[in-house]
Amino acid sequence: MLELAILGFLYDTPLHGYVLRKHIAALTGHVRPVAESTLYPAIKRLEKAGLLARATEPGSVAAPRHVLTLTEEGRSALRRRLAEPAQRDITDENHWFTVLAFLRHLDDPAAQATVLRRRLAFLEEPASFFYEGDRPLRAEELDDPFRSGILTIARATSRAELTWLRDTIASLDEAGR
Questions:
Q1: For 88-133, what is each residue's pLDDT tens digit?
Q2: Residue 11: what pLDDT?
Q3: How many angstroms from the chain centroid is the CA of residue 53?
Q4: pLDDT single digits (tens) 46-73
Q5: Measured torsion, CA atoms of residues 114, 123, 94, 73, in degrees rounded to the nearest 10
Q6: What is the mean pLDDT of residues 33-45?
Q7: Nearest to 119 by CA among 138, 93, 98
Q8: What whole-number distance in Å separates Cα of residue 89 and Cα of residue 108?
Q9: What integer is the mean pLDDT of 145-153?
Q10: What is the pLDDT of residue 32?
Q11: Which of 2, 97, 108, 123 has its CA 20 to 30 A from that of 58?
């Protein structure tokens, strides 16, 4: 998820590490804060793999600043990751939001719709946070108001997402014709 976010934000414009960290934190920070101890090793891995380039600019007040740029290979890698996200990127909400934040970088509406269909199929499967044996429990079946609340909120969120997915897939299908 972190590498996808790095590639996605750099797709549009070169950024300093500090600004990149702020952008990633705005997208995922409330759930998973981005520590320098994880961001900078990820940047180094992507740089070593030839997906990022680093240039040094003179600092306005302090030391020189490093500007990160996505290479052509990095642009291709991002599009590949978006076109074929891992299953966890489809099923984990935080990963999904990261994919969704950059899905516009896939130029093909059919490819975008394919990714959205995978999420749609996942959401259409019966599921719950709580089970009785193998049977998913519904909010109405729980006596615990807090667990019932979790399921009520999740159901409302899922319904909104399902509506958006269906509408967007239809729109992408129309654009692809």
A1: 999 998 899 999 999 999 999 999 999 999 999 999 998 888 999 9
A2: 96
A3: 22
A4: 999 999 999 987 766 667 778 999 999 9
A5: -10
A6: 85
A7: 93
A8: 19
A9: 94
A10: 63
A11: 2
Cα–Cα dist 137/128, whole Å: 6
Cα pseudo-dihedral 33, 37, 40, 45, rounded to 10 = -110
What whole-number distance in Å separates Cα of residue 164 and Cα of residue 173? 14
CA 92 – CA 88 distance, rounded (Å) = 5
| Residue (of 117, 88, 113, 92) closest to 103 by Cα position | 113
In whole angstroms, give the CA distance from residue 150 to residue 163.
20
* Residue 152 predicted with pLDDT over 70: yes
Torsion of CA 126, 131, 133, 134, to 10 degrees: 20
- C-alpha distances (whole Å) from 139 to each of 3, 126, 134, 162 are 36, 13, 16, 19
Tokens of 125: 């499967």
CA proximity to 172, closest of 84, 110, 99:
110
Q: How far apart are CA 2 and CA 24, in angstroms?
A: 8
Q: Reduced to 3 states, what is the DSSP secondary structure of residue 36?
A: helix
Contacts of 71 (CB under 8 A, 6+ apart): 50, 51, 52, 53
At 31, is the pLDDT very low, low, confident or very high (cuts 50, 70, 90)?
A: low
DSSP type of residue 60: S
What angle, 0 to 180 degrees and rounded to 10, lies between the N-to-C axes of helices 36-48 and 17-28?
Answer: 120
